[in-house]
Design a protein that fits this description.
- The complex is a heterodimer of chains A (about 120) and B (about 120).
- Chain A is mainly β.
- Chain A is built from no helices and eleven strands.
- In chain A, the strands form two sheets. In chain A, strands 2, 4, 5, 9, 10 and 11 form a six-stranded mixed beta sheet that branches. In chain A, strands 1-3-8-7-6 form a five-stranded antiparallel beta sheet, with no helix packed on it.
- Chain B is an all-beta fold.
- Chain B has no helices and eleven strands.
- The N and C termini of chain B lie far apart (about 30 Å).
- The chains are: A mainly beta (about 120), B mainly beta (about 120).
- The interface of A and B includes residues 9, 46 and 51 of A.
């Protein structure tokens, strides 16, 4: 079974600072990886995804993530935080349940942006 | 949350009562999912459906049942609600199997259930 570990349940940064949210996965087969964002009282929105091809993936709102197979990581970064980035972020990995695929989510990282 | 409607959005009920949450989609997507979200646990899959009348269990299916009689509707039922089922429930849809580019989850706005 595949699993996802998000290091740090809460990350706090200053506005304009680098955002780094960490995600590691366990997988016995090539993974498909996702980052979702959840703003308060809303559902989850897809930020970016890695399936195949380029290991550096760019998403919405200036976020990007790099798939590093040797490190089994898929960390999310943004060069300069905005107040509007304050939200909870979830890393997720595909796993196969028989003939059907399902996402397994990490426990989430709450990002706080300080003025 | 375009194309996905969850109802009710908020519900308070008592232990032992039955509860049904509804997810309605207008995207004609084949796959539908029910997740629950709890602090410190992230999102956990309860049940999912891969077609009309085709459903399967997720990782936390005990105490829940589902039904899908039409493509657009996926119902989650708590036969006898317990306080441990107090949670926020999210419905999600996808066009098909991973990992093709179109097959990512789109989520509803959530249904907050409180069991007293």
């Amino acid at each position: 079974a595949q699993s996802v570990t998000q290091l740090g349940s809460h990350v706090s940064v200053s506005e304009g600072a680098l955002v780094l949210l960490r995600c590691n996965y366990s997988s016995s087969v090539p993974p498909y990886l996702f980052w979702y964002v959840q703003y308060p009282n809303q559902g989850l929105q897809l930020l970016l995804k890695y399936t195949t091809g380029a290991t550096l993936v760019k998403g919405i709102n200036g976020f990007e993530a790099e798939f590093k197979k040797s490190e089994t990581s898929f960390h999310l970064t943004k060069p300069s935080a905005h107040m509007s980035d304050a939200a909870e972020y979830f890393c997720a990995v595909i796993h196969s349940g028989g003939s059907n695929y399902k996402l397994t989510f990490g426990k989430g990282t709450l990002l706080t942006v300080n003025p | 949350d375009a194309g996905i409607t969850q109802s009710p959005r908020h519900k308070v009920t008592e232990t032992g009562t039955p509860v049904t949450l509804r997810c309605h989609q207008t995207e004609n997507h084949r796959y539908m999912y029910w997740y629950r979200q709890d602090p410190g646990h992230g999102l956990r899959l309860i049940h999912y459906s891969y077609g009309v009348k085709d459903t399967d269990k997720g990782e936390v299916s005990d105490g829940y049942s589902v039904s899908r009689s039409k493509t657009e509707d996926f119902l989650l039922t708590l036969e006898s609600a317990t306080s441990s089922q107090t949670s926020v429930y999210f419905c999600a849809i996808s066009a098909g199997q991973y990992p093709t580019g179109a097959n990512v989850l789109t989520f509803g706005a959530g249904s907050r259930l409180t069991v007293l």
